[in-house]
Amino acid sequence: MFQVLLWASCLVIRITPVLPMALDPCSAYISLNEPWRNTDHQLKEDDGQPACDNHVDGEWYRFTGMAGDAMPTFCIHENHCGTHAPIWLNGNHPQEVDGIVQRQACASFNGNCCLWNNTVEVKACPGGYYVYHLTKPSVCFHAYCGHFYDICDVVDCQGTCSNPECMCSEGTILGPDQQTCLDENECEKNNGGCSEICVNLKNSYRCECGVGRVLGSDGKTCEDIEGCQNKNGGCSHSCRGYGTTYQCECPRGLVLSEDNHTCQVPMRCQSNAIEVNIPKDLVGGLEVFLTNTSCRGVSNGTHINIYFSLKTCGTVVDMRVR
After folding, report:
1. Residue 43 and residue 83: Cα distance in Å, rounded?
2. What is the value of pTM for the model shown?
3. Residue range 131-136: average pLDDT?
4. Report for 43-47, 61-65, 148-152: range of highest mean pLDDT
5. Among residues 57, 27, 22, 21, which one has the least CA distance to residue 131?
6. CA distances from 320 to 51, 52, 102, 127, 316 (A)
7. What region, left, alpha or beta, does residue 192 occupy, with left being phi > 0 and alpha being psi -120 to 50 degrees?
8. What is the pLDDT of residue 89?
9. Which helix (H) or strand (E) holds 282?
10. Mean pLDDT across 113-136
11. CA 256 → CA 54, 111, 252, 264, 268, distances in Å?
């Protein structure tokens, strides 16, 4: 009998996965070049449906062409940039040495320069331009704005200097290309000296106060409103005095909001929808149009009942005077 011994040898191979190199966003970006994105484009009724950046989601973008050179760093009024709530950059652009930085992006609507906000990333590129890592807006109609910045004024040295300096006007700073004058966000420095809210504007800024407070004579300090005789006590509708104090009141069909100064339409929040009941006599001579077909509106003898689905984008109530 023969006995055969079999030896098994094992070859151990260790495989280390090679991760793909991250691309430099300065060379791997998507261009946003639509003319309606520019801050000079004001939304008109015949423009059709407002723009909504629900396709912008987590990529790097650069503003080019008629859209502008970069995002504006000052408050943009509603119904600009082709949409209802334009999105602007609330903070200065970085320098090239700063690398990738985070900034707050604000959407303006209903007189509030930052009614909605989210965080985006910005990088200054060697070519003197910027790229932005933009996130998808939470609701419609929101769209990111582009802006054309001014070229600096070259100081004429009359032959007394070899390298003429580039000068920017007050409220602007020289960009990384050494030619473009970018808006300076004064609110980043000590909140602009404002005691409460600082709003950056084009080449300037302004101070604001919370509900129920008013700016003092210095234009920066907020003071309590004393009684109904001072700007109606900060009330959106009626103000009634009670001795040394006062109280805001609302017309029938409206209720006071949490700030105790603003009247709002009562609404019922559900898990996937919001239901609003508007008294007909409150609407008066206005017509209410639902521009989104996914919403439902029912009118009875006393109220207009509107149903807003939270699963669809673009719910807008358009109120027009007869």
Report:
1. 6
2. 0.60
3. 94
4. 61-65
5. 27
6. 21, 22, 40, 47, 13
7. left
8. 95
9. helix 280-283
10. 93
11. 33, 19, 11, 6, 15
